[in-house]
Write a structure and sequence with these properties.
This protein is an alpha+beta fold. 27% of the residues lie in helices and 23% in strands. The chain has ten helices and 23 strands. The strands form seven sheets. Strands 14-23-22-21-17-20 form a six-stranded mixed sheet, covered by helices on one side. Pfam families: 2-oxoacid_dh, Biotin_lipoyl, E3_binding.
């Protein structure tokens, strides 16, 4: 350019000017503008779908989004909090990218599992240009980014095929779902932590399929009764009552998925399990005195905490009562994991005190307070309320003297504890009485086993310092015991 004279420089400038504004170049500008404004540059998003966060979950409710559109996403980040049929569970993701579009807002309920709830794009892509699918009404079958409940690597105490290991609740669910042992899966996490990605990798390599879930069986109708049963007479036609008018004292109560699940499981349990019952009166004066001793020493334990410990010890001394169903197979559990019934605004939930026979009463009290508080706030993790080998329901603090409870399958027993009250014993002495009613699965537990357990528990409650003794079996000294 510098070597050209004035005329040469002018010719070069003139030619460049003609090239820049030629009709062909102008046409290319038009095509480029049309290309940028068309859908050809739209980014295809990666679908994020409503996950199944519990074995019985079919739909959920998004409580809160913790990521906004345009936010970067790293593996392990929590996307949102979801109300399942059991509790509120935080959902995290194992993919990396950018949150592009939230398709389902907060407080959206009855969202079917598999429904598209958000879109993300890969890092470096224009998230604002993500392509929105036309039909969002039905769940889709495309493979979404891997999502799970948020987990903290802990030493999980489990029963079943998953075994013990350094992993979180979602890993435990996968191990149990596919019938794997933790030792079969190579771990890649820090300090040997088993990650969900490790399990998914092994499942993909071996092309494993999940084990089918076994529903609680419903009782069969006897053939003779079914044959002779006559159809009920036709009811007379009655005009439908007028609908209630707003303001007449009626209030609609939302039937949440959690309450529907509770109703379904209890109905299946009551109709499909052969419930048998046994009630025993326990005198708990020494138990109350022991609690006073703890209190004077600055140890805050409740009567319920002492009962949990007593039940756990009784289960070790009567291990036949500590059993659960694995499909059609009855299994004696190696661990004593006691579920406790806790009432929450959303419904009844049963957090678990795992290994209750191996920890002290003070530790039990701490765990119960923590579990109950987080249960009422819907902040329990899945492995904190799923599982368990035996359940306790205590209504004594509400003034209930005696009641019976429905078995929590696949467990085979639940203890209903009433309140304490002063009574005169057979010798005319004033004592403190407490009624305990055991509901047990007659198909799994024989009557004499249930009686042995109740009498063992009675011995411990009436002499609570015997909880320090080792496990032993108590036999009933009755000539007819063998016939039960």
């Amino acid at each position: 350019m510098a070597g050209l004279g004035g005329r040469g420089a002018g010719i070069l400038y003139h030619n460049l000017h003609r090239l820049t504004y030629s009709p062909v170049v102008k046409l290319n500008h038009i095509y480029a503008a049309a290309f940028h404004s068309s859908s050809l540059l739209n980014v295809e998003g990666l679908p994020i779908k409503m996950p199944s966060l519990s074995p019985t979950m079919v739909e959920g409710k998004i409580i809160k989004w913790l990521k906004e559109e345009g936010d970067p996403i790293q593996p392990g980040d929590v996307l949102c909090d979801i109300q399942t049929d059991k509790a509120v569970v935080s959902m995290d993701i194992e993919e990396e990218g950018i949150m592009a579009k939230i398709l389902v807002g907060e407080d959206s309920k009855d969202i079917k599992v598999g429904t598209l709830i958000a879109l993300m794009v890969n890092e470096g892509e224009d998230w604002k240009s993500v392509e929105i699918p036309q039909d969002l009404s039905e769940p889709t079958s495309d493979s979404p980014p891997t999502v799970t409940q948020v987990e903290t690597p802990v030493q999980a105490a489990t029963t079943g095929s998953a075994g013990h290991g350094n992993y979180g609740p979602s890993v435990r669910m996968l191990l149990e779902q596919y019938g794997l042992m933790a030792g079969q899966v190579p771990s890649s996490g820090p300090h040997g932590v088993l990650l969900k990605g490790d399990v998914l990798r092994l499942i993909k390599e071996k092309n494993l399929t999940p084990k089918p879930l076994d529903p609680v069986p419903l009782p069969a109708v006897p053939a003779i009764a079914a044959a002779v049963a006559a159809p009920p007479p036709a009811a007379p036609v009655v005009s439908a009552p007028p609908p209630p008018v707003e303001g007449q004292g009626y209030t609609d109560i939302e039937l949440t998925s959690m309450r529907r699940t509770i109703a379904k499981r209890l109905t299946q349990s009551k109709g499909g399990i052969a419930h048998s019952y046994g009630t025993l009166e326990c005198f708990v004066d020494k138990l109350l005195a022991l609690r006073k001793e703890y209190k004077s020493a600055g140890i805050g334990v409740s009567v319920n905490d002492l009962i949990i410990k007593a039940v756990a010890v009784a289960l070790t001394r009567c291990p036949e009562m500590n059993c659960v169903w694995k499909g059609d197979q009855l299994t004696l559990a190696n661990e004593v994991d006691v579920s406790i019934a806790v009432a929450t605004p959303a419904g009844l939930i049963t957090p678990i005190v795992r290994g209750a026979d191996t920890i002290g009463v003070e530790e039990i009290a701490k765990r119960v307070r923590d579990l109950a508080a987080r249960a009422r706030e819907n902040k329990l993790k899945l492995d904190e309320f799923q599982g368990g080998t035996f359940t306790i329901s205590n209504l004594g603090m509400f003034g209930i003297s005696e009641f019976s409870a429905i078995i929590n399958p696949p467990q085979c027993g639940i203890l209903a504890v009433g309140g304490s009250k002063p009574v005169l014993d057979e010798y005319g002495e004033l004592r403190t009485s407490m009624m305990a009613t055991l509901s047990y699965d007659r198909a799994a537990v024989d009557d004499h086993i249930a009686a042995t357990f109740l009498n063992t528990l009675k011995d411990i409650l009436e002499e609570p310092k015997t909880m320090l003794l080792g496990s032993f079996s108590r036999t009933i000294d009755h000539p007819l015991a063998a016939l039960l």
